[in-house]
Amino acid sequence: MFEKTISTLQSFYDAYNKALAEYETDVAKLNNVYVQGSPFHKETLDSIKQRYNRKIAAAFSESNAIIQKDLAASREQVKQIIATPVIPGIYDTISLIKNHVVADDEIDTVLEPYVNNYMSCKVLLKELATDPLGTDLVWKSISHDGVLPYSEVLNHIDIIQRWTDNFLLLAMSDLGMQSVLQGDLISNHAITVNKFILRFTKGAKYVKNYCFGYDMENPDSWYFIIHPQV
Prior knowledge:
The protein is built from 10 helices and no strands. It is an all-alpha fold and 230 residues long. It has 2 domains: 3-83 and 148-217, no CATH class; 90-142. It is elongated, with a radius of gyration of 26 Å.
């Protein structure tokens, strides 16, 4: 998720700079041949500007459509995670834990069916927050990795949205947004969102070693390279 956004930004940046270079070359040639301010010079310059603007507008429209689709898909996936119902039996399990029927060394196994369900994680943390076991054993079992409030996940997506919008608009003003492509202004937020999605769609075990660009649909393709089975 978001790899397409960043690659599209790079494509737009390249298209913008190519169009700008062509514009500057055409204007330089025009200025070398015709007197600036003459009727023909003015008419030709207007034609060059229009051609340049059409190229930029087309690149912007195409890139923006791809990016908005990518962002919408991420929001929808997060929404589906939040809307997934609590795993049945969770309150019975909580009762067993509160009544100390479940031993400390059994917690991991007992909670395993619930740890990759967002709402189940929330229920466990809420219901066991004041228990003598506290949330320590629960956190140990469900792991912090990829667990974030819904609002925080959406905020990270909103930040990515702002950076991409700014990039497309500011690049058109030639204000230099190369740092967006080369730095972590987008990828750090993308990693946070992707870990959340990966956690609650594929499983907690994949989150710790996830790096931006890894295949989220087929996490075993890289997970078992990092953790080879004996």
